[in-house]
Amino acid sequence: MHGFGPVKKQFQGWTQEGRIGSHKVLLLKPATFMNESGRAIGEALRFYKLGPDALTVFHDELDLAPFKVKVKRGGGTAGHNGLRSTDQHLGPEFRRVRIGIGHPGHKDRVTGYVLGNYAKAELDPLSDMLGAIGAEAPTLFATRFYEGELGDAGLIEELEEACLDLAREDRAGVAWSKAHGYRGYTSYASLNDLPARDPRFADLVKLLNKHVARFAEACAFDLGGRKLKLDSLWVNVLKPGGTHSGHIHPHSAVSGTIYIATPAGAGALKLEDPRLPMMMAAPTRRADAGEDHATFVYAEPKPGSVFLWESWLRHEVVPNAAKGERISISFNYR
Hints:
- The protein has helices spanning 37-47, 81-90, 110-115, 123-134, 153-169, 171-179, 194-197, 199-218, and strands spanning 8-10, 13-20, 23-30, 56-61, 69-73, 95-100, 145-149, 184-186, 230-238, 244-247, 254-261, 269-272, 296-299, 305-310, 315-317, 326-333.
- It is of the alpha+beta class.
- It folds into 2 domains: 8-134, Peptidyl-tRNA hydrolase (Rossmann fold); 145-333, Jelly Rolls.
- The strands form 4 sheets. A 6-stranded antiparallel sheet has the order 7-14-11-16-9-8. A 4-stranded antiparallel sheet has the order 10-15-12-13, with no helix packed on it.
- Helix 1 packs parallel to helix 2 and helix 5 crosses helix 8.
- The longest helix is centred in the middle third of the chain and has 20 residues, at 199-218.
- The model has no long low-confidence stretch (mean pLDDT 91).
- Belongs to the PTH family.
């Protein structure tokens, strides 16, 4: 379809060079064992002096229905040995094309299932799916969304204690929350110096700085050599039934949230397609549309999840349907 050249043996695998639109592309199929595939990928990127932001990994996904495709950047490995190896060699911030194969139903059948071939009846839908993936339909004006892990369980526990302490002791914040109908507590309007006030928040900021720097690089921000700096940081303790309607964060470049406590049913972060006000007569999307076509995307957090987005992206906190409090810390960088 894209006129790729002949197969070559290099980088501990097989490669083909070609172009997709205006982009020069190298296809690499590692010849290593799956759990060592990161070695081959790392060798290729080092040769071309490229970082993980230039990498797209195509992989099978047990947790997606057969022939369903989703694309994301960053995140965990979900037990996939090839992703785990790539993460170990390059870090998590590469693009993943998740190709659904479905689950065989029992964990004892997984190994044979993922190593087996497609059934004859599956070949036509497989061909359709691969054709759609390979079609030259570039995505314009991409919106980045970062999902990372703080990676410090001890600090998460300390921050939970710190957030609950504030919810009890910050009288101005409690009063503001009550006056503005916030179901729970937020320090948004009462405290603007948490990192200076409490070393636990200062330790958090040191870790967040690294995540924000990676996200800024993925967004291709031209910062003239400077780094984005923390502008504001506040605590949210959301009681059952609490919510926060759709909004943006003006006067900032990057916004985000670190999740401290997310009991079952606490809900997702709901992200809105920024093109929505301009779609006018556009038809609704099919139920099986990928995330890049969705009107709304729901990002499900867990304790330690770090979500980042550009501050103009409209988002909302869905109602907390859990029996306990959902605790998070939000922030802006500029």
